[in-house]
Amino acid sequence: MAVKLYKPTSAGRRIQSVTDYSVLHKTSKTPKGLIVSKAKPAGRNNSGKITVRHQGGGAIRKVRLVDFSREDKKNIPAKVVTIEYDPTRTAFISLLHYNDGAKRFILTPQGLKVGDKVMFGETAEILPGNRLAIKNIPVGTFIHDIELTPGQGGRMARSAGAYATLQTVEAGYALLKLPSGEIRRVRETCLATVGQLANSDWMNVRIGKAGRMRLMGWRPTVRGKVMNPVDHPHGGGEGHNPIGMKYPKTPWGKHALGVKTRSKKKYSNKMIIKRRSK
């Protein structure tokens, strides 16, 4: 997908760009069972206290229910009816009509078109949108929507343009190179979908103005160094000042940059061959 530019009719429009959605279907009606309303927590916990800053407001969005497993539709062909925009994710979604009458949403890989046939099963061809066990996929293939545990449903490589590379399959495990650069083992019986996800240019979109961020649910962020000392460790002083510390801190005095947050005792550490690239 491409990025669309506009003529500089205003200061915000001058540096603004958007994803080109002209290839999507805008007039399709989403089946009632595949769309739900979901409350926005706006960064607050169950007692109403803000636990994540800078969240709130934003346009009203309804959640599309995407099928990340397809296990109950084994060996049932499906036809791609539409390719649609999903307001709650960066990737596009495709509406499938199965031969048994069911309708489901899946993530849209590059190359998938309206009218194509997709299927989940051991005999499925190695084509974009088809879902198989990793042991049945050739080494070197791009895959996405990958399970961490058999039967769990896809968990990895689900954002726009994402894919993992299948490097090898041996001793009951597959070796995957993930989008972050991490090399990880998963069981060969885990399911994955063939192809790279569409809309890989989404990361090149320039927001252009603050109003678009507000529509996305992001509230303004204030730098710590322009606050008072009572509000932030970086605050205080006359005029422009450095933070005056050995390392940046959060408003609560914790390390803000370069801190390892992964537990050294996490159960899945043994599955990671190489950590992600710096």
Structural account:
This protein is mainly beta. The protein has two domains: 3-203, OB fold (Dihydrolipoamide Acetyltransferase, E2P) (Beta Barrel); 230-278, Ribosomal protein L2, domain 3 (Irregular), CATH 4.10.950. 4% of the residues lie in helices and 24% in strands. It has helices at 11-14, 210-215; strands at residues 3-5, 17-19, 35-37, 62-64, 78-84, 93-98, 103-107, 117-118, 131-133, 142-144, 146-147, 154-156, 164-170, 173-177, 183-187, 191-194, 272-274. The strands form five sheets. The chain has a seven-stranded antiparallel β-sheet with strand order 9-16-10-13-14-15-17, with no helix packed on it. The chain has a four-stranded antiparallel β-sheet with strand order 7-6-5-8, with no helix packed on it. The longest helix is centred in the last third of the chain and has 6 residues, at 210-215. It is globular.
